[in-house]
Amino acid sequence: MFIQTVKTPGLAHLSYIIGSQGEAAVIDPRRDVDDYISIAKQHDCRIKYIFETHRNEDLISGAAILANLTHAEVKHGPNADGEVQYADVVHGGDSFNVGNIGLEILETPGHTKDSISILLFDSDFNDGPVGIFTGDTLFIGDVGRTDFYPGQVQKMAGMLFDSLRLIESKAKQAIIYPAHGAGSVCGDGMAEREFSTISHEMNNNPMLKIQQRDTFISKKVAEHHYQPPYFSAMERLNLIGASAYNAPRIVSPKQLAHVDQAKQDLGWLIDVRPVEAFLGGHYPGSLCLPVAMLTAYGVWLLQPEDKITLIAQSEAMANKAALQFSRIGFDHTHSYVPAEFAKFAAAGGEVASLNTVCATQVKELIKQDWQLLDVRKITEYNQDHIKGSKHIFLGHLPEKLNELSANKNYITMCASGMRASVAAAYLRAKGINNVQVFMGSMGAWQNAGYDVET
Amino acid sequence: MFIQTVKTPGLAHLSYIIGSQGEAAVIDPRRDVDDYISIAKQHDCRIKYIFETHRNEDLISGAAILANLTHAEVKHGPNADGEVQYADVVHGGDSFNVGNIGLEILETPGHTKDSISILLFDSDFNDGPVGIFTGDTLFIGDVGRTDFYPGQVQKMAGMLFDSLRLIESKAKQAIIYPAHGAGSVCGDGMAEREFSTISHEMNNNPMLKIQQRDTFISKKVAEHHYQPPYFSAMERLNLIGASAYNAPRIVSPKQLAHVDQAKQDLGWLIDVRPVEAFLGGHYPGSLCLPVAMLTAYGVWLLQPEDKITLIAQSEAMANKAALQFSRIGFDHTHSYVPAEFAKFAAAGGEVASLNTVCATQVKELIKQDWQLLDVRKITEYNQDHIKGSKHIFLGHLPEKLNELSANKNYITMCASGMRASVAAAYLRAKGINNVQVFMGSMGAWQNAGYDVET
Amino acid sequence: MFIQTVKTPGLAHLSYIIGSQGEAAVIDPRRDVDDYISIAKQHDCRIKYIFETHRNEDLISGAAILANLTHAEVKHGPNADGEVQYADVVHGGDSFNVGNIGLEILETPGHTKDSISILLFDSDFNDGPVGIFTGDTLFIGDVGRTDFYPGQVQKMAGMLFDSLRLIESKAKQAIIYPAHGAGSVCGDGMAEREFSTISHEMNNNPMLKIQQRDTFISKKVAEHHYQPPYFSAMERLNLIGASAYNAPRIVSPKQLAHVDQAKQDLGWLIDVRPVEAFLGGHYPGSLCLPVAMLTAYGVWLLQPEDKITLIAQSEAMANKAALQFSRIGFDHTHSYVPAEFAKFAAAGGEVASLNTVCATQVKELIKQDWQLLDVRKITEYNQDHIKGSKHIFLGHLPEKLNELSANKNYITMCASGMRASVAAAYLRAKGINNVQVFMGSMGAWQNAGYDVET
Amino acid sequence: MFIQTVKTPGLAHLSYIIGSQGEAAVIDPRRDVDDYISIAKQHDCRIKYIFETHRNEDLISGAAILANLTHAEVKHGPNADGEVQYADVVHGGDSFNVGNIGLEILETPGHTKDSISILLFDSDFNDGPVGIFTGDTLFIGDVGRTDFYPGQVQKMAGMLFDSLRLIESKAKQAIIYPAHGAGSVCGDGMAEREFSTISHEMNNNPMLKIQQRDTFISKKVAEHHYQPPYFSAMERLNLIGASAYNAPRIVSPKQLAHVDQAKQDLGWLIDVRPVEAFLGGHYPGSLCLPVAMLTAYGVWLLQPEDKITLIAQSEAMANKAALQFSRIGFDHTHSYVPAEFAKFAAAGGEVASLNTVCATQVKELIKQDWQLLDVRKITEYNQDHIKGSKHIFLGHLPEKLNELSANKNYITMCASGMRASVAAAYLRAKGINNVQVFMGSMGAWQNAGYDVET
């Protein structure tokens, strides 16, 4: 009897494959399903069931794709708002066998209306469950967000409170297997720790420890979460079932001859190299989205249907970026251009660069006509910020561009300079050219001993 | 905060690396320590501590080797019989920090006198431990064996009973991380399951559930365990610290010209291919030890200081075998010969093969002058066996060879035919030539509907 | 300017990719075209042209597939018997540029009517060609066979003679790049050497050295070549263009429960493990076709449309076998079964094995009622054979089965025992059960000092 | 009979392994010898001989190391100035067998006094050699340099002329296998083409075509070649035999806390990322040496005994750099630091960047007080340069630093901006801070249509 976690960095998504005696089940598969198939093979198991703990809003579910390849049955909780088309509906108390493993459904709505949790029993040692898959209902150190149904936050928070009580009563001795880890937009304040038990959470998880229903609800109502625009597309897609992802077959990478032509034919130029490389040299008009930040910020700056050309150091780097895009339904990454800017400049091409400034310089520049633009989350900004800085969350730049002016001078900042670089590149691409990046940003400012407002 | 398990197949050994905020610790490292170093690097961590839960008797500890490479400190429990030379002694209550992780020592003797368990706390969520490393004290589904000190089984079993109570009182909500999984010779009746919690074990582990000290002790006294001869070498070595393993650099593999010469120069010819390949063609006098069975049975048929030449299908297969040998201190695997027997025969070489017989044939042959030789464990044999079969445990063949005669005809058998093949090859190598292998063995016999004695 | 050879073992096929300054061309691509695309990428080149030196009869051309993926143009020589549908016709003197490379067509019929050779020039150093692609017209150490057009051997041999003179006159200083190496069925007596020049061949190649047209023709007429039945399918397919090969996606490998059921559902059971493993244990009725022998002998024993289940040691081995089958148009390898015969026997399954005999035993057995069956090529048999042995070429067993009797006892032999094992398995699958394999075969016989007839 | 080329990028070095019937020979092995051993294994060959075509001055020979591992014999030409200690001396006419391969020595001094060439015969087709290893005597498109012996250029050039005539007379029909390809400092004007024959070279190689001894000598005397300072160390080392290279075992990479401390403990900080990344952010005082430029320019800016800390994007990149350093005897690359500059700045660290300017900007700046510093080779500079630019070859910066002033403003330039970045970083590290890089350099300048001086 084995359990293996398949993590998706960027989305902080956790999926699981469990198996015993030639049979296996997958919980919350992502779109690229090869890993599940390969793990099942290693253990000489046939995938029998696929469970979705709820309809995902932040990534494409691979359930329909994996079912198609393996003939496994997909199981999904009941949903009054519309049934998932490729799945059977399961209800509280339904149970399933996977070799020696027994699985039992708990209905645990709150994060979404269709959320379920799944108890895991060992039929050879079956006095109580040994594990529980909690989806986005309960995380390590936090619980799921409840703000997805407009006007129903209070109701959903109350449902979540009750679901958590049900989990406590059924699974005290179990290991917890949630659908997200630290860094996900589906919750906040999750532990960095990747392992826990329900009873440890009952003693330590700040939200799980709240025993008053009202207190719990008002805490949830007061939370602030961002909701990227692609969530609605994910929800629609995960109702009908996504198609398998086919990596773009990049046959003949070639250095760009002229950037202008590229923009016409190739859509957005997305530069996925580390920020330093982007700062030092890039195609005019290209966006800065390093591979590790691509999922978190690409979803705000681009649309799923946008045509994308990747700028990367190597084909491997481009493929990694294309895969990450595909997991969230951005499928039009058709090509890649190797990053060789000295060569490009020598051939007569125009190469752009972005200037960086340090804390001492920033302190002087803001006395002149340079506007600090802080692109962190509002919760970070509220905690402490530099006096006189203007706040626009990086993800909101597209919709708030009109608050900025092409005639003004901006210094972008965040916590370290990473998001500030992404923001600066976006402003440049949108015609706001006088932009510099505050390298080190809030960290450098505070380390220099300068004042902040809180 | 991460935890990662490093498994050693063949030995069913489990070791762990944990880390947080740039620091890491390793629990019970094996001799080939590259994996720990590489996992630490992936998480950008420095290895700060190495813990040994007890002095290993079944494999070479990599603690001294890893300490040498990383400058980490090694920690080991107190041992009245002799201190481990490369480690600091730790006592119950001692505690250590690894980033955000807190570790606390429990003294839990019983399996050995120096056994410790280690509680794992998350300092951000520190109401009770979230994990516990139990070494060979407590397994999933079983507890450690207590027969290592001649004449002290009762005393050790009593100590183990008390240690288990201590673990229960301290770590009820914790996930359990033991040093062995199913298949180890360090315990019996372990669960196939690879994950559990202490509270789940308290409800389900048959040995942990025993609440009477006397009952527990008499159960332990009644157990039967084999103890391969290399255990004593391991114990000595793990007191002073083993040297790093250097894989043999096999520069120029060549087909053997004459087996006789090979035997002089090359020591034992160990054929590590699958049994079927051995049965179909092999060098006269070579032993059959497929990679997956090599650790379990090589330790009985060979001595650590024996010179070994590997016969393998490929260099990769030979390297895998050499690595497995090195983990248990058999370091003299200096070379490998590719298995190409038709070529060898065409060049004038002598190729041996082993005949197999099926259940129907066996039923007839034992009526004639063929002796069935059952090489399973005594516990398996006692459960059921074929009437008239002689029992010698595969591991005891070297010392009980005198019970067999070169003039007699033998059919070797086990549960499936795997161990029977290993046994048959050994008999042949020792001059007992009239040997056939019962393919399918006890399984085939019973599936054919024939009688067994119980 | 680079040239890289892509070899296909089993078929001894050689294809080439050349490139310069961002452009590349491929000569005689095989069906699995990934390697060409990946080499082109490594050199940052776009594939511009694909050349076929002639219509292949022994493997599926990948020209149409590669053209489809890269938009390259396919070029093929003129053929009065029917034009290749996916290619442009080129004629002697036509020339093409690939970066700094100049290519020029020579019409060199003889092996086939549409055979061309291609001169390679470096435009920076263009006094004479530096290389020549000779297809199946000229090999290292031999020339192409001329027996493909019934009744036209003399005519084709004459054309070949003239073509060779043309090559000599145009490319004396060039390196030769032929379409096959030693081991191909498209010629005989090729050198083991993988590199040569035209002038070295002019001094050393026995067939190229013949200066009399008549002598050359009569030599060619006297040659004996086998022509496997799938050749005609290849010829048809390479006229219209094959589809891309999609590897079977083996989702859930499972041990067979009953061989009988397998035979119904799974078609031929093809065991691709080394011969020794097959001899030691296999499914009754399965064929022995080790990966390295699969292309050479599978084409005689199976039909392209046959359903095939692979028996292999690992998935990697099965995939390798499936790929080799696909290169010659055998696309129905839909699944694989791991080879674990002791387990299978223990579960009640029937496991077969094949007995081997050595030279001394053979010498005795042929005095009794055992018939030696020599399955080598007729040319090998004619050179020397054991008195009393019957000859049927391994590839002709299917059509000459009626010459054998299920009531007789056979010992199969070849040069070493490899082909003898393949033959023995085939006889068994066809109901001729009393078969043993002469391990070492002719080699062992002669090394034992026994007499042969010549 | 196979031949395989092992290329060393950066050094443009070509070495070879040939084999036949279980035996192999290596020609001019580099220091990291694993590839030769692994290729020999693939072909099931034992390495019997190692040949050095001459004493290498530009890289560490691996002959002594490989001989030590394989017990092969090393063969080297006669050298009046001092014998290679680990080799046997061979003379013209000496011959050796490697399976079916025959090798015959030609003494071909000129590039060095001990230079030999080696004819390759196929003993089955032995009318004339089929290949020739020419070392640094004859390249494709050029011949070896003859300026290594002070005051003896004329004499050496004459010897080379005679050696080339010997090669022509012996190997007209042979393929040429030289020790360097395009990009090496051991010759100039080599063809980009990687394959040729002696007769093709006789018709096309400009130096080989010169039939007058005097003309040839005066051409050679007029050539200009740079000679990096490490050459003398290589020559000494290759006389006694280098030790094997052991890759630094980088156990715990950590972000630097303070650069100052780093400089004390860690020696030179060598940043091996692409130039754009360096320009965008780097440690103050670090040098810019991208992996691909490291061998060519590191040898001028550093000493073999210098302590080096690598700054890299990943451990793989650092290992690649460390390996390249080791091939030229720079063994003190003991550690690496991951490049994460935004994080470093946020933690209070100081991050430097380098400004780039384009052609239009340069045109204006040089009218002001900015001095253009052209760091190309003198031959490039002489061909065309920008009016008013100062020339110092990049490799000569260390010795000509006194020609520059810390109070002046410099714009560095080369052909594209790559070497200009390396130069700018070096100037900064040496306290000349007002430096900008001309991105696109000469290429951009000319593409902009601006004037050059020739």
UniProtKB/TrEMBL annotation, chains A, B, C, D:
Rhodanese domain location: 269-353, 366-454
Keyword Iron-sulfur found: no
Keyword Metal-binding part of the UniProt annotation: yes
A GO term for molecular function: sulfur dioxygenase activity
CDD domains documented for this protein: POD-like_MBL-fold, RHOD
SUPFAM superfamilies membership: Metallo-hydrolase/oxidoreductase, Rhodanese/Cell cycle control phosphatase
Annotated GO biological process: glutathione metabolic process; hydrogen sulfide metabolic process
InterPro entries associated with the record: Metallo-B-lactamas, Mito_Persulfide_Diox, POD-like_MBL-fold, Rhodanese-like_dom, Rhodanese-like_dom_sf, RibonucZ/Hydroxyglut_hydro
UniProt keywords, alphabetically: Hydrolase, Metal-binding
UniProt name for this protein: Hydrolase
Biological source species: Rheinheimera salexigens
